[in-house]
Amino acid sequence: MTGQGRLAAWGIGLAALVALPFVYRDPYHLHILVLILIWSFAYTSWSMMGRFGLVSLGHGGFMGIGAYVTALLWNHLGLSPWIGIPISMAAAGALAMIVGYPCFRFRITGHYFVLVTLALSGIVLQVITATRDYTGGSLGYTPNRASGNKLLALQFDGKTTWYLIALAVWLFGIVVWHWVDRSMARYALEAISEDEDAAAAAGVDVTAEKLKITLLSALMTALAGAIYCQYQMFITPDTVSGIAVSLQMVFAAIVGGLFVSLGPTVGAIITILLAETLRIGFGTKAVGWDNLVYGVLLVIFIIFLPKGILGSLLDRLKPQRKVPRAHEQEAVQIARPGT
Amino acid sequence: MQTFLDIFDIYLLEAVINGILLGGVLALLALGLNLIFGVIDVTWICYAELVMLGMYAMYFMVQYYGVSYFVAAPFTILLVAVLGAALHYLVIAPLLTAPPINQLLATGGVLFVLQSFATVAFGIDFRNLGIRLPVLAFGDMNFSYARLLSFVAALVGMVAVYLFMTRTFTGTAIRAISQDRQIMALMGVDTKRIYLITSALGGALAGLAACLLVLQYDVHPFVGLSFGPITFLICVLGGLGNFIGGFIAAFLFAEIISLGGLFSDLEWGYVLAFAFFIVMMFIRPAGLLARRR
């Protein structure tokens, strides 16, 4: 596909997405779409660093901070989410820096990085639970209903409004993804993910590059958390923070495809539709079934299709595509042992 | 001086000793995880979920079938050992040549599977054995027998593993493989078999921990999340694959949780432990006992 054709396809697709709520108004289906868009944005944020081998299990923590800080500022200080969301993002960014800088400075990579970030989401979850006088603990938390200006409180009743907001946020995520994809930082980060020492020798500032992408990813994840909170108007520590949420992000991004821009979105569509279908099909009996299917799928995907559904599909459509980058090749080997 | 004495009271001593007792079980868990990491170079994110299944096995055997606790325990250990071997055979073995991150994430998938399997099969109720062991009063301090028993059993388990690793041929082979993966295959050691044995051994340790934890805690599908993360942190703090480091780190963590819980809520004990872990990662990135490069 040529560059112009691709742009046209994006344009038509977007126009269709924007027009959708004005043509089709089923509130339940719109609700599902909003959820898909918000989670897609969160998964895209995760994959921004995940695709460079920086597997973080701390993103549940960032998301929780985004959601809880925004809600707490609104309820206790009456601060509008328009100010609260930037503050919550800054808080998540600061935390990412505090944890990220020493991690990258001291070359904590691989297993160690995963487990340090795991501790991070553990801390956030426990702090939210422990400060139950303010946050409601594990029972959850509800932002106060706005009495005055709805716009100022970022609370809307209409699903259409939320759909458009979520669409804009999601599009923003995709745009940022492409922006990173075309920047010099991508080449630097790919070099780092292949060999840190060689990258450093070639003049890449390893610590700075990693910090930049981590900061970006954390800020966007916090935004996703805040938007989720404003939309659902009810958050619990388990739905927006903690290790389960982090693993959910990893899972969706991998199933969809880590190395393509729409991969996490495809992952979100699959996981959320799966969960909803199971929920409707089995009712309360379905408790646990969705995660059971998730888990089995995750294992199968990692073993047989490590590039995800969309990634593998695109590869199949374009067999003459450029030689896969080394860190992807490594992953491909699992699918075809002996190559 | 007076204020110091006020703080250093009998409760503090009680918390310290309870911390040591808690440390025993944590050390046992860390040992199993370290063993697997050291030999196979894989982190089982789902390790605590194996423990959870073991706890359910204990619960059903003791509560439903009326098997006595001490008869049920060996069966549970055997069952979880088989589970560990199966986990290796089905999930880890196909991924042995994959990037380590993929292996870690695959076991993350297994975590989901085991958790939701327990939810589907057993429901989300909290269950307990209904065995109430007496409380040992010593001076003004109270210790539960359950904790003491766990501590002793954990120590016995660890000594048994130590003897196995140093006194038997298989144990020696396991240690050798953890030092050099490639060479041992050339020396005529069947690495696949050793990996399976190690996984089963790791599983058996999880089973033993399950038998001990079920005495103190209720079982529910998410019980793994309450001590799983702590176990990973202990292993990393001690240096992944470093048995002695893991042992020391387990007691450090247990003390922090226990003392933090004394001065405030239990959650703050955990928060303190997590924060301590992150700080330590910066001071000693490769583990407590690692030599500076």
Describe the overall structure:
- Chain B: Pfam families: BPD_transp_2.
- Chain B: InterPro entries: ABC_transp_permease (IPR001851), BCAA_transport_permease (IPR052157).
- Chain B: It is a multi-pass membrane protein.
- Chain B: The chain crosses the membrane at residues 15-37, 44-62, 68-92, 104-124, 144-165, 194-215, 270-290.
- The complex is a heterodimer of chains A (339) and B (293).
- With 339 residues, chain A is mostly helical.
- Chain A has helices spanning 3-23, 27-50, 59-77, 81-105, 110-130, 132-135, 150-153, 159-182, 184-194, 196-201, 206-232, 237-240, 243-256, 263-282, 289-304, 308-317, 326-335.
- In chain A, helix 2 (27-50) packs parallel to helix 8 (159-182), helix 2 runs antiparallel to helix 11 (206-232) and helix 13 (243-256) crosses helix 14.
- The longest helix of chain A is centred in the middle third of the chain and has 27 residues, at 206-232.
- The relative contact order of chain A is 0.15.
- Chain B is 76% helix and 3% strand.
- With 293 residues, chain B is mainly alpha-helical.
- Chain B has a two-stranded antiparallel sheet with strand order 1-2.
- Chain B is globular.
Helix/strand layout:
The complex is a heterodimer of chains A (about 350) and B (about 290).
Chain A lengths: L2 H21 L3 H24 L8 H19 L3 H25 L4 H21 L1 H4 L14 H4 L5 H24 L1 H11 L1 H6 L4 H27 L4 H4 L2 H14 L6 H20 L6 H16 L3 H10 L8 H10 L4
Helix pairs in contact in A: 1-8, 2-8, 2-11, 2-13, 2-14, 3-4, 3-5, 3-11, 4-11, 8-11, 9-11, 13-14, 13-16, 14-15
Chain B lengths: L1 H6 L2 H31 L6 H18 L4 H24 L7 H23 L12 E4 L2 E4 H23 L1 H11 L1 H6 L4 H26 L6 H16 L4 H21 L2 H18 L10
Antiparallel strand pairs in B: 1-2
Summing up helix and strand content along with how strands pair, one would put the structural category of chain B as mainly alpha
**Multimeric organization:** heterodimer
Order of helices and strands of chain B: HHHHHEEHHHHHHH
Terminal-residue CA separation of chain B: 42 Å
DSSP strand content of chain A: under 5%
CATH architecture of chain B: Orthogonal Bundle
Low-confidence stretches of chain A: 329-339
What strand order characterises the main sheet of chain B? 1-2
CATH class of chain B: Mainly Alpha
Largest sheet of chain B: 2 strands, antiparallel
Query: What number of structural domains do the residues of chain B give?
Result: 1
**Gyration radius over CA of chain A:** 20 Å
How much strand content do the residues of chain B show? under 5%
Helix content of chain B: over 70%
Q: What count of helical segments of chain B does DSSP give?
A: 12
Number of strand elements of chain B: 2
Shape descriptor of chain A reads globular
Measured on Cα atoms, how large is the radius of gyration of chain B?
Answer: 19 Å
